[in-house]
Structure to design on (122 residues):
């Protein structure tokens, strides 16, 4: 199993940048596909980005593809989500998740963090 702890969420202004981090426990981090999801009030949880075991393959939701970047550092057991040019619609709880296989569905991810709140003021 892997335990995930997100950090970095805070109140920012529209147009600002923010980097979220997700620290994973254990020595098997590099065996997991890592993903970011978000959920805004009253909305379904939605896929944001994912990255494969080595960091060589990524997939990012079309709605944020021009502004968000995902990366990982296996030596630090950490995955990052760099968010630029933030918009008010990006405000949500952002969740980090881990999976043994490649697939964007939330059901594919067995392990989840508690989430970190991102609020974007207009």
């Amino acid at each position: 199993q892997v335990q995930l702890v997100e950090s970095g969420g805070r109140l920012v202004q529209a147009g600002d940048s923010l980097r979220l981090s997700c620290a994973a426990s254990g020595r098997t981090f590099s065996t997991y596909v890592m993903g970011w999801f978000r959920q805004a009030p009253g909305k379904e949880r939605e896929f944001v980005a994912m990255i494969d075991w080595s960091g060589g393959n990524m997939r990012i939701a079309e709605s944020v593809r021009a502004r968000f970047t995902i990366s990982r550092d296996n030596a630090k057991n950490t995955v990052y989500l760099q968010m630029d040019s933030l918009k008010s619609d990006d405000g949500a709880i952002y969740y980090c998740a881990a999976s043994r296989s490649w697939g964007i569905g939330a059901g594919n991810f067995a392990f989840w963090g508690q989430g970190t709140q991102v609020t974007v003021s207009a």
